[in-house]
């Protein structure tokens, strides 16, 4: 007799998902390797459309590559689950905003697993789960008990169903933990290893969910350093600037100097916060140029002064497992960035283009302006100009007067992406409705 637990065998599921509904959070899931009753459970209680924004089942490796935008080193790993969760989070954020949710409280879920099949696996059969929220990044990993090498096809089939249900159960519990809800007790039959928390006298377990190390704990250390060197570096607080973070996708992901600059476009901003408008613009630029967008944050603003290191790292955390971000020291002006990264094109708004061409920033002298534009030209810097609202009028590259000699420095970007971070911060301070 095979022990296969059905998803409708316990009222705990209904109660847990009902509690999840009341949080007012939205959910987008990306799963691969197995699928079971998780979607049915999340959809079951009423008002699912207020919370469950979508699910992408990337069973084929090519489908996962398309969703992430790159080929993972391993398809079932903690790292890949984290990338899936980060992409699910930002994909869900865009969907939520398109639905009219001004400040979404998103949960992005990534679950990848390797379960029993018709042949014996040499490695572990396991599940890797990651959940991204606005402020935290949760993770959990467990291995399953494997069938014997000579197991029958029937045994492998029932093991596959059991493992799939366990993977879904654990994913649901990580979601509940991330949302601040009570986890569901379950039997760990069929599980080999994992960080479980037994409930004395009840006969079930929950998960000890951990958090992914944030930027502050990760960016100070190089992959080749020994543990002693890493500890020493953490203590002396080395510079966090001039290094490329959150980037497994480019050459030499620890140092910006090692990046193939001919294949990137720099997109500078405060990213306080990062939002779907930035990501939509980045996708447009990548489709337009065939190059990879690298986000850039400098610690020195020409008008607002210096940003503390802790705040820089908080902003860098938004890109964790999602996109490359470069932190720069004392590069407030675009000419400063051009000198530091010659030949790298940059993305700007039409309002910024106006500022670059405004003689008031050059002592009122056209010669000073032309000297800077000539230097941009010598450095090989060009600007991709996105339309922006300026004084309630939508301004594009073609609406800004530029001397004919320098027209080639400014290239128009199609489309309208004009949401500002300051507008989003204002909306975040407005009272939000929950529990719809």
From TrEMBL:
Residues 267-426 form the Cytidyltransferase-like domain. InterPro entries: Cyt_trans-like, Rossmann-like_a/b/a_fold. One of its GO terms (molecular function) is ATP hydrolysis activity. GO terms for cellular component: cytoplasm. It holds the Pfam family CTP_transf_like. This is Cytidyltransferase-like domain-containing protein.
């Amino acid at each position: 007799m095979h022990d296969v637990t059905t998803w409708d065998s316990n009222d705990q599921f209904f109660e847990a998902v009902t509690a999840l509904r009341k949080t007012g959070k939205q959910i987008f899931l990306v799963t691969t390797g197995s699928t079971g009753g998780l979607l049915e459970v999340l959809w079951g209680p009423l008002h699912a459309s207020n919370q469950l924004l979508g699910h992408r089942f990337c069973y084929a490796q090519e489908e996962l590559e398309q969703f992430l935008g790159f080929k993972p080193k391993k398809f079932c790993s903690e790292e890949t689950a984290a990338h899936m969760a980060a992409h699910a989070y930002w994909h869900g954020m865009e969907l939520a905003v398109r639905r009219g949710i001004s400040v979404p409280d998103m949960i992005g879920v990534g679950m990848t697993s390797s379960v029993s099949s018709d042949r014996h696996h040499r490695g572990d059969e396991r599940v890797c789960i990651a959940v991204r929220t606005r402020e935290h990044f949760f993770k959990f990993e467990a291995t399953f008990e494997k069938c014997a090498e000579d197991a029958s096809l029937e045994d492998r089939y029932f093991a596959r169903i059991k493992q799939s249900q366990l993977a879904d159960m654990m994913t649901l519990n990580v979601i509940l933990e991330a949302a601040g809800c009570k986890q569901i007790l379950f039997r760990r039959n069929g599980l080999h290893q994992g960080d479980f928390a037994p409930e004395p006298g009840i006969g079930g377990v929950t998960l000890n969910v951990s958090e992914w190390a944030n930027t502050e704990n990760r960016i100070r250390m190089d992959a080749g350093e020994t543990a002693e060197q890493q500890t020493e570096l953490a203590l002396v607080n080395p510079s966090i600037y001039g290094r490329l973070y959150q980037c497994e996708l480019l050459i030499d992901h620890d140092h910006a100097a090692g990046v193939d600059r001919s294949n990137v476009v720099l997109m500078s901003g405060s990213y306080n916060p990062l939002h779907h408008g930035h990501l939509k613009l980045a996708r447009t630029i990548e489709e337009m140029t065939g190059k990879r967008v690298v986000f850039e944050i400098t610690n020195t603003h020409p008008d607002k002064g210096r940003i503390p290191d802790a705040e820089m790292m908080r902003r860098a955390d938004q890109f964790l497992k999602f996109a490359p971000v470069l932190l720069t020291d004392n590069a407030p002006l675009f000419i400063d960035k051009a000198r530091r990264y010659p030949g790298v094109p940059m993305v700007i708004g039409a309002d910024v283009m106006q500022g670059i061409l405004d003689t008031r920033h050059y002592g009122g002298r056209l010669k000073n302006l032309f000297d800077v534009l000539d230097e941009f030209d010598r450095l090989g810097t060009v600007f991709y100009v996105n339309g922006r609202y300026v004084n309630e009028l939508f301004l594009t590259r073609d609406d800004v007067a530029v001397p004919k000699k320098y027209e080639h420095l400014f290239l128009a970007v199609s489309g309208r992406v004009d949401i500002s971070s300051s507008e989003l911060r204002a909306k975040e301070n407005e009272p939000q409705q929950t529990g719809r």
